[in-house]
Amino acid sequence: MAIIECIPNISEGRRREVLDACAAAIQGAGARLLDVKPDATHHRTVFSYAGSAAEVKAATLALFDQALATIDLREHSGEHPRLGAVDVVPFVPIEGATMADCVALATEVAAEVAARHGLPIYLYEEAASSPARRNLEDIRRGEFEGLAAKIATPGWAPDFGPATAHVSAGASVVGARMPLIAYNINLATDRLDVAKKIANAVRHSSGGFRYVKAMGLALEDRGIVQVSMNLTNYEKTPIFRVFETVKREAARYGVSVLESEIIGLVPSAALTRSAAWFLQVSDFTDAQVLENALRNSQ
Amino acid sequence: MAIIECIPNISEGRRREVLDACAAAIQGAGARLLDVKPDATHHRTVFSYAGSAAEVKAATLALFDQALATIDLREHSGEHPRLGAVDVVPFVPIEGATMADCVALATEVAAEVAARHGLPIYLYEEAASSPARRNLEDIRRGEFEGLAAKIATPGWAPDFGPATAHVSAGASVVGARMPLIAYNINLATDRLDVAKKIANAVRHSSGGFRYVKAMGLALEDRGIVQVSMNLTNYEKTPIFRVFETVKREAARYGVSVLESEIIGLVPSAALTRSAAWFLQVSDFTDAQVLENALRNSQ
């Protein structure tokens, strides 16, 4: 059976009962819940679940029902930019599924959610209806607070649903993409300018690596700063290269890397290949990983 | 079904037709052949295969038949110490199998091979009949050439088979152990003394890490030297710590690490945890690896 993963981000990272209800809705629909990662500072939670297209679709519809009933963006603030109560919903091909399967699933879910909730929906990445809508950042620019104006602007009518912002839930961005690694590097300093300069140096949009999105944030409660990143293709822009570059850029300002964080799940190959690089292993192949060899020989 | 892996080392690393026949014998017996790693310098090959206890037993008996018919240690020389044509045969618990299962399997195979071929067999590691026989190095000391004298020494009668060396096949060492990583670090120098000093520094027997066996070797054909290691417990003595220590010791002699090699298979966790260490990932757990999350949720 083809397996598809869905990794929605919702704009709630503090109320445990809301997150529990969302998790129950996902599981009740038959999907396998893989991970729940709440972030109180960002006031945002990443869910991850997987299953057949039908299971993942049912789980996603149930999640929208639950989240829209309990989240009101008019009362929401957090470090992370957001456009909707259910902010971003990417579908990712895992085992035996194609990108075309995920694009079809994203389109179906978008149509059904828009009809059910009167919610404007933008399709993004591989499911985008035009090149101008591929990038999440372009769609999200202006955030919830700027949505009413933006959605009325020529070229920014949603792909599904009304061309007016939902009063409490804003709009949602639904799409299909390759596996992504949510990767943050925390710096042993409170100098926000350093985090912003490093984000600027490594991200694609300002001249950095092709498959890196990055921003500099303050983690006020800890008195440190963070380079918050999405690595959108770990095969072509590997995690170790991004880490080493951030570390070197930080050193130029006399700043050390305190630690890094992997948010949610990470494909095994992204880490095993990083280990092989750090350990200078020559001629390493994924087939040398015992679990891969067992799977391939079955 | 419980899965057991077997990783025998045979004293043949050059004749392709012999290795092909051994591989065919293993597969013909129903085991899944995971890897074949010949080493011409060591004149030695590591096979890896897995399956149920019955499949792995049948494959191992077939391998002994094939290897003993085609390998004559009287004509064998190589860099690596060896006692027999089939030198070492460890059984390792993988999925759903216990160490006790592997000890039982090792004992059965040893009895049957000894009876069928008139071959002396020593049991080692977890299957050892006494503490003096736990360590492979102690059993193998003196090698094939010294076996006739050693086997007649009090305390060195084999666990199965005659107390006389097999004329062409010597003796074999059969046992059970935890997964082991065969890990070599090549140094950018031809100074054998440096490789030997570093091996001495990191191995348990001379004061180094608890779960490291190591020796310094010359790779004559490449004009470099190698610290050749077995890491016998990657959870307690992790690969990254060994690599960093070897690198630091080499630097003290003005020598660089050229590259490292993982021979055969490596458990995923040994590499993903190494990546997490190098990348300074805080709060990393094995459950964050996507493939583990999928397996655990099934």
Structure description:
The structure is a homodimer of 298-residue chains. Chain A has 298 residues and is of the alpha+beta class. Chain A folds into 2 domains: 174 residues, Formiminotransferase, N-terminal subdomain (Formiminotransferase-cyclodeaminase, Chain B, domain 1, 2-Layer Sandwich), CATH 3.30.990; 86 residues, Alpha-Beta Plaits (2-Layer Sandwich). In chain A, 36% of the residues lie in helices and 24% in strands. Chain A has 9 helices and 11 strands. In chain A, the strands form 2 sheets. In chain A, strands 1, 2, 3, 4, 5, 6 and 7 form a 7-stranded mixed β-sheet that branches. In chain A, a hairpin with a 4-residue loop joins strand 9 and strand 10. In chain A, helix 1 packs antiparallel against helix 2, helix 2 runs parallel beside helix 3 and helix 6 crosses helix 7. Chain A is globular, with a radius of gyration of 19 Å. The two termini of chain A are 16 Å apart. At the A-B interface, strand 3, helix 7, strand 11, helix 8 and helix 9 of A face strand 3, helix 7, strand 11, helix 8 and helix 9 of B.
